[in-house]
Design a protein that fits this description.
This protein is α/β, with parallel strands linked by helices. The chain has helices at 92-111, 146-150, 185-198, 237-250, 310-324, 341-346, 360-372, 385-388, 391-397, 414-423, 435-445, and strands spanning 10-15, 18-19, 25-29, 32-36, 44-52, 56-66, 133-139, 160-165, 168-174, 213-220, 226-232, 256-261, 275-279, 283-288, 295-300, 331-335, 352-357, 378-382, 402-405, 427-432, 449-457, 467-474. Helix 7 links the parallel strand 17 and strand 18. Helix 1 packs parallel to helix 11 (435-445). It starts with 9 loop residues before the first strand and ends with a strand.
Length: 476
């Protein structure tokens, strides 16, 4: 029996050989796979182990002996601390190659299906300032960086407005400049923090569950409209209104200013009322339809799901439309429809599109989006898909010729997959932000379907996330 490796053991001169899923890279040590974040192939490093399993190891870099030629200089001062944009040190060309490989590996290793020739991934034209939504957290427990600690400065005020530190639920890194969202996002966040400190507004304490300011959501649209939602932990009306009125005066261009009172122990506002303070309770995004003939307008509310990279969403939906090959006589089911963007995008090509979404507010937005765009051949339903997608649903709407499904990261429920297998639509277009769960579902659908086309689309530069679009054709 071999000697067990000691906890926190250090492995020296480890060569990183390839990238892996979830943004990590890997090496091979004594026939075991070693996962190491913040590395790229070609790095030679010393690694301190923090997790040991029978089939793999995980560790962190404590020293670089050689840095790979594939590395580039990160552009953000917060890189490596805030947890976002983890691939800034990799050239964008290498990021795209890595993402393409993740999609291919998932199809071959997890789905174990025959894979057609896959074209090159569609990259994003914008690699910074591409997001239309960010959520920031207020905290009285600012995360101090190594540089701040070593400065020996005394930090009496520990207020922060920024992002959670990975693995530290109660610690927030204060953000000076974020490269993810266009102005006025940075100006809004920095003004709010300065104002709150000057006026002694309390920042939230996650452990003690006390304080006034809790979260701030900023949504920007390609129409130039801006929505800001403040989440307060308690209802101090006089303080709240004074703050929000001064904020509105500072940023008069806002299209929508709203707020939430969240007294719960979690940050979710899905079950809470979002109350209007000034302006509309929505902003508008625009996109050409699948024919390229009509500019569609989408109303997006504070709880609505809309692809967070507006420009790249159009490229993604063009792939969906190309794969679906919807005809004028086709009935289309659009599952996990959100605010009905895909449904309305392809409606002009189809006989009828039926969208299903779990969030009722999103369905109301979807209906209004169809109405505002003069689209009359869509129908939308709110509910859990595994309950809604049943025999009665199919009999009422008619059998689908095409199914488009864009589930959350967890993938589809087995009941949904089984119902798809039963009705045997001619084509299924499966859009996924998680190639692993997509591959799991494809393995189940392999009983009746063959993978005909695959296209990877990068929606989130400088992260490991990738969208995978797969066309499934009914076996003959």
């Amino acid at each position: 029996m071999g000697r067990r490796k000691k906890k926190n053991e250090i492995l020296e001169h480890v060569e990183i050989i390839e990238t892996a899923a979830e943004g990590k890279s890997l090496a091979k040590v004594n026939d075991q796979v070693l996962f190491v974040p913040h590395t790229v192939p070609g790095d030679i490093v010393d690694v301190q182990l923090y997790r040991k399993r029978r089939r793999y190891l995980e560790g962190k870099v404590i020293r670089f002996h050689k840095k790979s030629e594939h590395r580039v200089e990160p552009f953000c001062e917060h890189f490596g601390i805030c947890g976002g944009c983890k691939w800034q040190f990799i050239s964008y060309e290498d990021q795209l190659r890595n993402k393409q490989r993740v999609v291919v590996d998932a199809l071959k290793r997890i789905a174990k299906v025959e894979v057609p020739e896959i074209p090159k991934i569609i990259g994003s034209k914008k690699t910074t300032f591409y997001r239309n939504k960010l959520e920031f957290t207020f905290s009285n427990k600012e995360w101090l960086t190594e540089a701040q600690i070593q400065s020996e400065e005394v930090f009496e005020a520990r207020n922060a407005l920024g992002f959670h530190i990975p693995g530290r639920f109660d610690k927030v890194l204060n953000i000076d400049k974020c490269w993810l969202q266009e102005d006025p996002s940075n100006a809004i966040r920095n003004w709010v923090k300065k104002y709150a400190e000057e006026h002694k507004l309390s920042f939230f304490d996650l452990r003690m569950q006390e304080g006034l300011l809790r979260n701030m959501i900023v949504r920007t649209a390609n129409t130039g409209q801006v929505m800001v939602v403040f989440v307060f932990h308690k209802d101090e009306q006089h303080v709240r209104e004074s703050f929000m009125n001064d904020f509105r005066t500072q940023f008069p261009q806002l299209h929508s200013l709203m707020y939430v009172i969240n007294e719960k122990r979690n940050d979710s506002i899905a079950d809470l009322d979002v109350l209007p303070y000034h302006g509309a309770n929505w902003i508008e995004e625009t996109m050409m339809d699948a024919r390229g003939e009509q500019e569609l307008t989408f109303k997006v509310g504070p709880k609505s799901f809309y692809q967070t990279n507006s420009d790249q969403a159009y490229e993604l939906y063009k792939v969906v439309a190309e794969f679906a090959k919807v005809q004028a006589t086709d009935v289309v089911y659009d599952f996990y429809t959100g605010t009905g963007t895909i449904a309305n995008f392809i409606a002009s090509k189809s006989k009828k599109v039926i969208g299903v979404e779990y969030v009722p507010e999103a369905i109301e937005d979807a209906k209004e989006n169809s109405k505002n765009n003069g689209i009359q051949n869509t129908d939308f339903f709110a509910g859990d898909l595994k309950d809604v997608f049943n025999t009665d649903f199919i009999e009422y709407h008619g059998k689908a010729d095409v199914i488009i499904t864009d589930p959350p990261r967890a993938g589809m429920h087995k009941d949904v997959v089984n119902q798809m297998l039963d009705i045997k639509a001619e084509r299924i277009v499966y859009v996924s932000c998680n190639p692993a769960t997509q591959a799991r579902d494809l393995a189940l659908l392999d009983e009746n379907y063959v993978v005909s086309k695959v296209q990877a689309v990068d929606m989130f530069p400088h992260t490991h996330h990738v969208e995978s679009v797969v066309l499934l054709s009914l076996r003959k």
